[in-house]
Each structure stands twice: as C-alpha cells, then as structure tokens.
Amino acid sequence: MLPVTGCGTGRPATIVAVQLRNEIEQRGRVEGELLKVDEFLNHRVDIDLLPEIGAEIAKRFAGSQPDLVLTAEASGIPPGLVAAQSLGVPMVYAKKYVGVGERYTFAREVSSPTKGTEYRVEVARRVLPPGQRVAIVDDFLAGGRTAEALGEIVEEAGGDVLGFVFVVEKTYTGGRERLQEHGWRVDSLVRIVSLANGVAELES
Questions:
Q1: Residue 204 has what pLDDT?
Q2: How do residues 105-153 score in pLDDT, each as one tens digit?
Q3: Are strands 186-194 and 200-202 parallel, antiparallel or unpaired?
Q4: CA 3, 19, 115, 164 torsion-angle sign
C-alpha cells in the first residue's frame, strides 16, 4: 500500500477526488519522481471509476459549451473519452511521432525531461476545423509541455481553448504556471504536492 498524506487547503474534496485518493493509496506506486497509476487509470483502466471521472471533468466545463474534447495519446484517451461522452461531444486525440513526417497536420515538437526524449504532437487538420470551442483533458499535469502543445495547436487551427482539466496534477513542477502564462484556465481533480521519500502527499 502506498502511503498518502493530506496537506489541507480547506477546500472540500469532491466524491471523485476522494475515490481517486483511495485508488492512489491502494494501487499507486511512487518510482523516483513518478507517481504510477497505471493499474487503474492509464494502462489497466478501471471501467467503474472512469465514468465518474468523466462526469466530474464534464462539470468543470459546465456552461462552456465545448464542441469537442482534445487529448493526447495514449494515456489521455481514457479520461478524454469519458469526458467527451459526458459532455455529448466528439473526442480528438493528438498522435505522437518521433521524427519529422510529411503529414498534413497541426504539429508541435515536445521534449520530455523525465524520459530524455523528443517527439511530435500532431492533429490532422481535417478533424480540427476552425472555430471549434475545445476542452482539453489529460491524465497528468507535470511540466505541461504536451498540454501547452495541444493548446497552441487549437489556437493555430483558429479554435478557442476553453481550458484544461487533468485527473492528477503535480503542483511543484511548473505545468500550471506554463499554461496560465498563455491565459488558459487550468483545473485538476486531485493535486500532488510532494513525492518525497516515496510518499504521495495530496491536497485535501
């Protein structure tokens, strides 16, 4: 069992946030600077929990009237899909490639400091026409480079970024600040403030 502690902010937790905390405690793993949630969220997917996550994400976009949900393969697809289903709109996922291609896409180069790799995030132009109101969803917010690429792609396509919602956010890696510098709204279901000593410390 993974040790999980709270760092109370006085903000009431949603039911889904409590469920996520329980899952992180029971099935999460801290490996260095990484919190692995691949036993229930982004590799082996808990089909009972995911619809609840999708409904909660949809609430965060209430009143925004998105035309579609945008995410990135592969781990963003489960939360992106259930969020789109709850919102009643299509989901588009950006594909990741290594190296330059000849594809007719909107694309951005993204570097991953944790993995030491670079890749291209691409969305086919035919699936992202101009004028779309786009809700961006992903499983994790850490450094925010992939999320930033998605936001820039939406704006290049002539769309409107309604905001970002992440299932899990690391608060100490600068991702939120990176996105907010663009003027984008950022939200998350649970927030991690530390992984020191193999313990996931979450806001509560």
A1: 64
A2: 999 999 876 666 789 999 999 999 999 999 999 999 999 999 999 999 9
A3: antiparallel
A4: negative
Q: Prior bond to 13 cis, omega within 30?
A: no
**Domain, as residue range, for 23:** 4-202
Q: What is the CATH number of the domain that holds 158?
A: 3.40.50.2020
How many domains, the chain?
1
Joined together, the tokens standing for residue 4 give 């999980």
pTM, two decimals, is 0.91
The pLDDT value recorded for residue 1 is 43
| Residues counted in the chain | 204
